[in-house]
TrEMBL record:
InterPro entries from the UniProt entry: FAD-dep_OxRdtase, FAD/NAD-bd_sf
Coiled coil: none
Entry keyword set: Membrane, Oxidoreductase, Transmembrane, Transmembrane helix
Domain FAD dependent oxidoreductase: 6-370
Protein name from the UniProt record: FAD-binding oxidoreductase
Pfam families: DAO (PF01266)
UniProt keyword annotation of Chloroplast present: no
């Protein structure tokens, strides 16, 4: 480890490693990169504990385009991230997303969202009740007024595979990783100058990237800055069915999608089992080290909703559960990507509110462009920049799960 790096990235999970990859892959960048990660096992990283899915069904065109790029990267990931003949396989399952609506308000949201999605070329269709029943016969549809289904570009994949693919390729391209923790960020006026590590080392930095997930606010405060991001707990459950409905669909080779019930409960196939979760009724900020699952959510919220939606889900049994953290942006539930307007060499890549895995590729590319060129060259992410945080101007996303 050297005493000076052109870029120091705080956090080495999927966002930090994507930034490191895109920087070192660009021939216009000739600088040095250090990624500081306190836990190289990533056992409690949001990346590792996520439901690892990707969708284009968002309400904002920028979020649709971000996921379209993410889907492109996932399709070509093995070739792009090959190191010494090893091509990582993300085991992508193209199951699609299925949103169900049963109130006039939900129907209008699906229609508005669909207009934004198709304007970007997303392969999403709206179905009436009969079309839904024909596609997925196991679903009870009597109360459903409209459904939205992603026919391609959506599904789920290997979450840690994406992270390690970026990490390994970045390292092969010259990025350095150190197991340590940033405990201080030193600043002189309008510029950060160095970071202090728990080991006692002081590393001079040309640019600092905040990629510290749910701990983003703590990292920002070290530089005397604020960002409205806090850890929010999400519990995921894996369950077995007495009689699985997987294989019963009349399209997509019988594969079932990730279904979002009007109640907010979602589920999708997970091998021979199913993965499910729900937005909690009470959703406070939690301690950064609180990973205790909320066991009652399954019995009180999830199972009743699933049993009502399908006979197949009346007899189910939990076989595993865990809790992870959303890096929750309390202003508008959207990513914050960009430099601080008063501290230009401190760059935020935070607040993904559960979408960081699928938005990682576009974020890594965008941050690298800011550092190398001083602005976005491909997909313009200005709308999700830090300026809206300063102004208290939400950039709302209505399709948040």
């Amino acid at each position: 480890m050297k005493q000076h790096y052109d870029v120091v990235i705080v956090g080495g999970a999927v966002i930090g490693s994507a930034v490191a990859y895109y920087l070192t892959a660009n021939p216009d960048f000739t600088g040095s990169v250090l990624v500081v990660e306190k836990d190289p096992t990533y056992l409690k990283a949001s990346t590792s504990l996520s439901s690892s899915s990707i969708r284009t069904q968002f309400s904002n065109p920028i979020n649709v385009k971000i996921s379209q790029y993410g889907s492109e990267i996932i399709r070509n990931f093995g070739k792009m991230m090959e190191v010494d003949g090893d091509k990582p396989d993300l085991n992508f399952h193209s199951g699609g997303y299925l949103f169900l609506a049963n109130t006039p308000e939900q129907v209008q949201i699906l229609r508005d969202n669909h207009a934004a999605q198709v304007s970007c070329g997303a392969d999403v269709v709206l179905w009436n009740r009969d079309e839904l029943a024909s596609a997925f016969p196991h679903i009870r549809v009597d109360d459903i007024a409209l459904a939205s289904y992603g026919r391609s570009g959506e599904g789920w994949f290997n979450n840690t595979g994406l992270m390690y693919g970026f990490r390994n390729k970045a390292r092969s391209q010259g990025a350095e990783y150190v197991t340590d923790q940033v405990v201080g960020i030193n600043r002189e006026g309008s510029r950060v100058t160095s970071v202090t590590l728990a080991s006692g080392a002081v590393i001079e930095a040309g640019t600092v990237v905040n990629a510290s997930g749910p701990r983003a606010a703590r990292t920002a405060r070290m530089a005397g800055l604020d960002i409205p991001v806090e850890p929010r707990k999400r519990t995921l459950f894996v369950f077995d069915c007495a009689k699985t409905p997987e294989g019963s669909a009349t399209l997509n080779d019988g594969r079932l999608p990730l279904m979002i019930d009007p109640s907010g409960v979602f589920c999708r196939p997970e091998g021979k089992f199913f993965l499910t979760g729900c937005p909690p009724i009470d959703d406070p900020a939690v301690d950064w080290d609180d990973f205790d699952p909320r066991y009652d959510e399954f019995e009180e919220i999830i199972w009743p909703a699933l049993a009502e939606r399908s006979e197949s889900f009346e007899a189910i049994k939990v076989v595993n559960q865990w809790a992870g953290h959303y890096a929750f942006n309390t202003l508008d539930h959207n990513m914050v990507v960009g430099a601080h307007p008063e501290v230009g060499n401190f760059i935020f890549a935070n607040g993904f509110s559960g979408h960081g895995l699928q938005q990682g590729p576009a974020t890594g590319r965008g941050v690298s462009e800011l550092i190398i060129y001083g602005g976005f060259r491909t997909l313009d992410l200005s709308e999700v920049g830090f300026e809206r945080i300063v102004a208290g101007r939400p950039f709302l996303e209505r399709a948040v799960i």
